[in-house]
Amino acid sequence: MSPLKVAVVGANGKVGRLLLTQLKNNSSFSTPLAIVRTQEQVAHFKNIVGVDAVLTDIENASVNEIVDAIKGYDAVVFSAGAGGKGVERIFTVDLDGCIKVAEACENAGVKRFIVVSAFKAEDRDFWWNLKGLRSYYIAKRSADREVRRSNLDYTILQPGSLELNEGTGLFQPLDKLEEKASAFYSVNREDVASFITQSLLHPDATVRKSIPLVNGNEPVEKFIQSL
Length: 227
Ligand SMILES: NC(=O)c1ccc[n+]([C@@H]2O[C@H](COP(=O)([O-])OP(=O)(O)OC[C@H]3O[C@@H](n4cnc5c(N)ncnc54)[C@H](OP(=O)(O)O)[C@@H]3O)[C@@H](O)[C@H]2O)c1
Known about the structure:
Pfam families: NAD_binding_10 (PF13460). This is NAD(P)-binding domain-containing protein. Residues 10-203 form the NAD(P)-binding domain. The structure is a single chain. This protein is α/β, with parallel strands linked by helices. Helices cover 42% and strands 19% of the residues. The chain has one domain (6-162, 186-212): NAD(P)-binding Rossmann-like Domain (Rossmann fold). The chain contains nine helices and eleven strands. The strands form three sheets. Strands 3-2-1-4-5-6-10 form a seven-stranded parallel sheet, with helices on both faces. Strands 7-9 form a two-stranded parallel sheet. The radius of gyration is 16 Å and the shape is globular.
């Protein structure tokens, strides 16, 4: 198989940076593309990280402009987020930004699309009363539903609370998810990045699936097989 060409929206984020480095160092992938929103970030990714980079602010870009950025790639990863900076930005980045990128994938003929959503986004009872997170979850849930309605080979990853610890390579099996106390529904960003990499390499196990991602005791290879 020829090396996969992957474009990452939200490349400058904490998950995005880890992912770009993993993709760059894995011979199954061609030089990845960082989609970022300032000229300084473009220079950083090209000159320091050593990957390709393009300036496309998904909030203000048209779908056609996003098509121009991702054309010719095999897969797009959406890991952008407003970071809780106001309801409007949550809607323009996490919701409409994600939907625009999905539309752009369809228009550009990029079938593979991986989205970083949020844990139990589908379950209103879980998040309705989570302090300060209602708008965020409305955006994530609605974006996920639009992605599921697309004809893309999507994978929707739904990580628990994101941590900055070193990756463990271990995940909580889905049939044992409820055994965890909710306070421990967390996952290291490095594990999210490596699971994205694994999903790109194992489409058979991950395409058209929504996958809750929480650290646990199961090695990633076994976790993937169980999906
Ligand atoms: N925090 C949690 O506990 C948690 C839990 C579950 C899921 N998530 C989701 O996981 C994803 C990744 O998290 P993270 O920690 O890596 O987030 P992060 O560090 O805040 O990164 C988000 C990235 O999105 C980029 N972005 C924002 N607006 C953009 C725009 N208009 N155009 C292009 N890029 C834009 C930001 O760019 P700049 O660098 O220029 O600001 C930033 O690099 C997010 O979608 C988040 O909602 C988070």
